[in-house]
Amino acid sequence: MADNAADARHLYEQVAAVLRRAIMRGELEPGKSIPSEAELKAQHGVSRDTVRKALGILTQEGLITAGQGKVRYVRAYAPLRWTLSSFEGKDRLDSENTYDAWGAEVASQGRQPAETIEVSIVVPPEQVADRLKLDPNRALVVVRKRVRYVDDKPYQLADSYFPEELVRGTPLMAPRSVSAPAGLLAAIGFAQSRFVDEIKVRMPTWTENDRLKLAPGTPVAEVTRTGYGEDDTPLRVMITVAPGDRNLFVYEIGVC
Questions:
Q1: pLDDT tens digits, one per residue of 120-141
Q2: Nearest to residue 192, comparing CAs of 82, 88, 86, 83?
Q3: Domain 80-250 belongs in CATH node 1.10.10.60
Q4: What's the whole-model pTM score?
Q5: CA atoms within 13 A of residue 253's CA, in its CB half-sphere
Q6: CATH class in words for 2-60
């Protein structure tokens, strides 16, 4: 039984290796379908169970789409290059101020940005209250929840939290895209002078998986950015959840 199990494992790994090599060489192109289970079974002289195990490996590696018994495709990747070290700087707005910082970054890469926005006043989550130095039992925050799209595909979930008393009655309360040349906080008298980024890589929650339309086995990066004013007062916390196969994070760091 042990020998048979080892042989079976060896066979499905062999089949997976053949398909993986064809994908890496471009013989199976991104977006194109791969041979069906029946075709692979005949080509390699193996059982359907062996084929499915091989396809399961490639699905977990993110090389092909899921779909037992259905047509599977070689996954196509078009990651957004997100330069976090300069993101939100004044130079990130386009010349006509059509987009905010993120939209300008997407448009600069020849792609089409879009977003949906919901705005509400809530009790701050613990991690937000801690970073904004707020009492979670007394303070309220304004949260702008966005789903960010690139070429009509969801690329990020971005939730920005502000102390309610700071942004009360400002354009940040509007449930639509808003921008200003130096940033909206600067426009209302609270310019951010520095940021602290914390990046955590994890598997998505069920809700994140559903909203981002993720393929099985896709990890996400959770980027928590805290913005501080000139007096070092925390002004905003932005928590972005970004699929690992759709985003490339870039930092340009000078030598001190």
A1: 999 999 999 999 999 988 999 9
A2: 88
A3: no
A4: 0.79
A5: 5
A6: mainly alpha
